[in-house]
Design a protein that fits this description.
By secondary structure, the protein is mainly alpha-helical. The strands form two sheets. Strands 1-2 form a two-stranded antiparallel ribbon. It has a two-stranded antiparallel sheet with strand order 3-4. The longest helix has 28 residues. Keywords: Membrane, Transmembrane, Transmembrane helix.
Amino acid sequence: MKLPLKVDNAWTRFVAMFSLADLLVLACLWASGFSLGYYSKSAYVYDNLWPHWYALVGGAVTLVLALGWTLRKHKRQKYSYDHYYIIFYGLLCALMGSCFMLTKQLGESSIHQLSLRWKSPIKSLIPPAVSYYFTFVGLSVVYLSGFSYVSLRCDASGLRPARIAFANALHACGLASGFVIFNELEPQRCGLITLGINLLLISMVCLNELLQHVGCHNYKESRDLVFNLLNEERMVFLPRQAVLAQFVGRTDYELLASRQWLVLILGGVLVTLQRNCLLFSPSYLQLMWSATTGYVHRSHLFAPFVLYAAGCGLGALLLMRYTPKLVYLLFGVIQVTLIVALLCIYSEEQSEHCFLFLCLIYATMGVLSSQSLHWLLECSPFLYTELALSIGFVLQLAILEGYKYEANVDDTWTALLAGSVVTLVLTSLAIPVVQWLQPHSASLVDVRNRLLGIHRQSSAGEQTQFWQTNHFLAHNKPPHELQSVRLSKSRIFQQYPISGLSDTNDNPKQKF
């Protein structure tokens, strides 16, 4: 069956965005979200919030990696596309975490003896808990290198927001899948699943490197030709003054003040905070779980994260057709309206009335979630892209850890109201900032130039009207200024005045 032309064109554009290396990095991002889903289930369902600080370890490793990566880029003055080597290390850390889930060296008797020796319970030392330190290092490393690679592989067609949103959707799907599968009472089964996933991905990464070595494909380049040329000439990390020097004397460009750091810091902080302020809120999760039980009469604990993943997928589809500004404006206003409606209808005794509103809220969270990734990856200086992304990820982990204290609040309404008000304020501020500061998505070099204040002058469009393109008829010349136009030896055209033009000076009323 032949597809309609528009559907066929959309499918062709979608398929053209990905190759083997691109699909593999998306699978690695899914596995990173899968590990995060394990942790979320352990922390929020099995109440293992204290005294573990796995996320801080992952955040510290991410910052160290980003700093080292930045220094390496500064030394080489070019992108060397080391992403898959870093992903390989992250997968090895995740593999070690799954091995800890399978070990039996800390049995019940050993735990009891160590508890008596240390005079304190050591629940945090059971194999699944120990594995999270390695797992968080692995998922953090894969997160940083994976999204960086997705952004670099985009072409100049303006599909970078859709690609980043699609990668974010797969990461969210991994989060939902891990949340569904994990069971703290069956750590070995969960360990076998993650062990199989990580072994498969490690083997695929090795295969990808082998194909690169034999020349079957080249994953160490971008589809952005201008970016590739600058990278080969070691001009991609030039400071602003060196970039401006290339446009001196160009009449088709105008040089304005740079606003790159304003866009990155102000917009990046706002959209990152707005993205993460509700997803892991214990008050919203508990309300969603109780509302689900009351509405469908079944305990679907995975419902918030499945809805969030569905929203991420919807956002990726929308960004293939619409601009990020329009999508953020529309769904930001929708989210504000839904939160206000939720506060109006909330009842602690009848939480099922909030179910539909909560479903839509989590879905809109997913639609808006890719905006912060797109902002950090596209608006940051090339030299500091990974550093900016790592700071955004550390901020996300800090919010995740900070929500531990919300679980200690006894008054549910107070916690719900506080989280809702903060979200309303952040969303209301983020919407105009996005409309004001976000540049149009195009080539990375074009986006950088616009942020540095290098703007192309608008030129008059090509004229197609008859009186603009015909060079042989004189409409505004008096007879004594007419001339012949020789095109070749045997082709001579004579200009002719418009009828009545010669009488214009004598009789102004007879103008044509």
